[in-house]
């Protein structure tokens, strides 16, 4: 948390976050055109923001794109805002505007969330695939299905209703899980075509005993309502996973 507040203390870094808020997935060249400083200076500020967990990067071909990481901001909200505020202000935690109408590069990821958890990749994988654990942080949803590529899965709520469904596309424990995603609990999302979730799990390069969990949501061009729901919901899911693994509790307990 200290690294986050230190990163936010610099006005140039806040400007970079504002630019990513206006339009996510920007290149270094794009960001440099908006700041009166050297390319090296912008790179330095971006590195500090990434190390603080406030942004993430993805390479697409030769280009490197920068994205806001709403999970870190969500943690600030959970720690410093939510306990003082009324429930109706929860919408303030949204970090990005709707950009579905703007053209994007083919294969360019749109929503990227990342969080660091003090645990092993194996424990994260277990939390992600064990229905007894997913029901404790994934909006009470228990995942059910044979864990192999090409197999269908469903997520059930305690009332015996299917909240979501899809197919496992890639199963590589404990490093990578790719799955299609169709949200059924809302009429407007249930009618949309499936989108895709990619879970990437890897040991943190700089901190032994810490695992980085990255979730990429893409292929939602024909699922705009699902996109908006997951844009807000995935940071909460990741924060809930972190709380469960590190403390054994939930965000609401």
UniProtKB/TrEMBL annotation:
The keyword Phosphoprotein appears for this protein: no
Keywords: DNA-binding
Domain of life: Bacteria
UniProt GO MF annotations: DNA binding; DNA-binding transcription factor activity
Residue span(s) of domain HTH arsR-type: 1-88
Family per similarity comment: Belongs to the AHA1 family.
Annotated protein name in UniProt: ArsR family transcriptional regulator
Organism: Brevibacillus gelatini
Phylogenetic lineage: Bacteria, Bacillati, Bacillota, Bacilli, Bacillales
């Amino acid at each position: 948390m200290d690294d986050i507040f230190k990163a936010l203390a610099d006005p140039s870094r806040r400007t970079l976050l504002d630019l990513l808020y206006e339009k996510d997935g920007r290149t270094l060249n794009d960001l440099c055109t908006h700041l009166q400083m050297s390319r090296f200076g912008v790179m330095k500020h971006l590195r500090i923001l990434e190390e603080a967990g406030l942004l993430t990067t993805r390479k697409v071909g030769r280009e490197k794109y920068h994205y806001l990481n709403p999970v870190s901001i969500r943690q600030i909200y959970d720690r410093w805002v939510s306990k003082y505020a009324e429930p109706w202000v929860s919408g303030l935690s949204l970090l990005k505007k709707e950009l579905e109408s703007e053209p994007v590069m083919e294969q360019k990821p749109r929503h990227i969330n990342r969080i660091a958890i003090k645990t092993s990749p194996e424990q994260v994988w277990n939390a992600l695939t064990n229905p007894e654990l997913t029901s404790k942080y994934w909006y009470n949803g228990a995942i059910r299905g044979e864990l192999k590529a090409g197999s269908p899965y469903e997520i059930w709520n305690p009332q015996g209703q299917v909240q979501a469904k899809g197919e496992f596309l890639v199963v590589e424990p404990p490093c990578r899980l790719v799955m299609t995603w169709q949200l059924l609990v809302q009429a407007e999302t249930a009618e949309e075509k499936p989108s895709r979730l990619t879970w990437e799990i890897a040991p943190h390069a700089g901190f032994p005993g810490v695992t980085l969990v990255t979730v990429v949501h893409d292929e939602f061009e024909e699922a705009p309502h699902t996109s908006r729901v997951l844009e807000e919901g995935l940071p909460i899911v990741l924060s809930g996973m972190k709380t469960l693994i590190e403390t054994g509790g939930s965000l609401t307990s």
